[in-house]
Amino acid sequence: MNQSILLSISGKDRAGIVRDVSEVLLHAQANIEDSSMTVLRGRFTMMLIVEVEDSGLSSLKAALAELEQRTGLTVQSQVLSEDEASHIPDEPDCVITVSGADKPGIVFAVTDVMAELGVSVADVSTRARGEVYMMALEAVAGDKLNALQAKLADVSDKLSVSIEVHQLDDGVM
Amino acid sequence: MYELLTLPDERLRQKSQPITQFDKSLQELSTVLEQAMLDGQGGVGIAAPQLGIFKRIVIVDCSLGLHKNKNHGRLIMVNPEIIAQDGEALGREGCLSVPEWVGTVPRARRITVRYQDLQGKTHELSTKAFEARVIQHEIDHLDGILFIDKVVSTKDLIRRMDT
Predict the structure, then answer these.
(1) Which of A71, B23, B92, B123 is at a distance of 20 to 30 A from A169, taking alpha carbons?
(2) Nearest to B95 among A123, A129, A173 (CB)
(3) Which one of A91, A92, A95 has the shortest CB-CB distance to B157?
């Protein structure tokens, strides 16, 4: 049997973090499955789902503790349930982009109307640079797309930020 | 029969050659392409190099799309080239040659494409939205370009908003 483990790892950005982490995982015979890794300002952040055989779980944990000690990276691990590990999320069907003057509550206002409609977020990135705030979200809107567009138009007026909803018409080509 | 090339087959990166002979063998090639497009689950377009035939011909049929969309039905395009384009739209693309992958790709919203039919007669077609996207995707195949070369993440989108 295999176990799926979610690792959250971060540390001061430098060349070689992904190498250091993947080297430890390779030696512990943990396979990197899905992952998202990115640099946020001066901090490199990683989220990975790794798969390891039951028998290798304790040596993986020991190897990660050693990695923390040696490199100063922060490592957290959670064992996923079988349900979580095998769940393939719905593909997003729209992209929402937001830009405007930075002020408190932009992310809340946008995601609040999404949550009210039961529209699930698949991916978000935000960036604050000086006065300007930008956000891009991928969401699974389904038949709520029109309602979402109307509500986001209100948010856009209230916060004076520009919000665009791009419908993703998909196809296999 | 035909062989559908899939990643990581390097032949998908090959540039296709213009078609100069408008004969029976071109008709036959078109029939094979059509069949391969119809065999592909949810397929709305195909380009000859996907079958390992490096000639500039594509077939697009957006009436086969899963969602309702405005389209010109089945288009068989020989030596197609985009002669005008404007606007930008995001869409989610998948490809028969890149199974199990989908990604968000920016494309021109409106295009005008010049192409020849199977008899060699030249046509010009202006279209937009989904059909314009599919045509751009297929023409890319003729130049060895795959949609995965153009996929953007939310992070990329923010970078693009900034410029």
Answers:
(1) B123
(2) A173
(3) A95
Q: Which of B163, B158, B152 is nearest to A135 (CA)?
A: B158
pLDDT for the residue B60: 97
Domain that holds residue A8: 2-86
**Residue B111 to residue A167: CA distance in whole angstroms:** 19
Does A132 reside within a domain? yes
Residue B79 to chain A, least CA–CA distance (Å): 18
Please tell me whether residues A49 and A12 are part of one structural domain. Answer: yes
Structure tokens given for A137:
């979200």
Q: Is A172 domain-assigned?
A: no
Fold of B10-162: Peptide Deformylase (3.90.45)
- Chain A contacts in chain B segment 40-69 (CB below 8 A): 40-46, 62, 65-67, 69
What is the distance in angstroms between the Cα of A21 and the nearest Cα belonging to chain B? 23
pLDDT tens readout for residues A111-144: 999 999 999 999 999 999 888 999 999 999 999 9
Residues A8 and A75 in one domain: yes
| Distance in Å, alpha carbon of A162 to nearest chain B alpha carbon | 11
Q: Report pLDDT digits (tens) over B6-28.
A: 999 999 999 999 999 999 999 99
Question: Could you tell me the two tokens for A168?
Answer: 């993703």
B41, B89, B155 ranked by CB distance to A125: nearest: B155
Considering the domain architecture, whether residues A78 and A99 belong to the same structural domain is answered as no
Give the CATH number for residue A131.
3.30.70.260
Instruction: For chain B, list residues with pLDDT below 70.
Output: 163
Q: Do B93 and A170 touch (CB under 8 A)?
A: yes
Q: Establish whether B93 is a catalytic residue.
A: no
Interface ipTM: 0.73
Residue B33 in contact with residue B7, Cβ under 8 Å? no
Could you tell me the pTM of the whole model?
Answer: 0.80
Q: Tally C-beta pairs within 8 A across A and B.
A: 91
Whether A128 is in a domain gets the answer: yes
Nearest to A135, CA basis, from A168, A102, A112, A167: A102
| Residue A110 contacts residue A152 (beta carbons within 8 Å) | yes
Give the total number of structural domains in chain A: 2
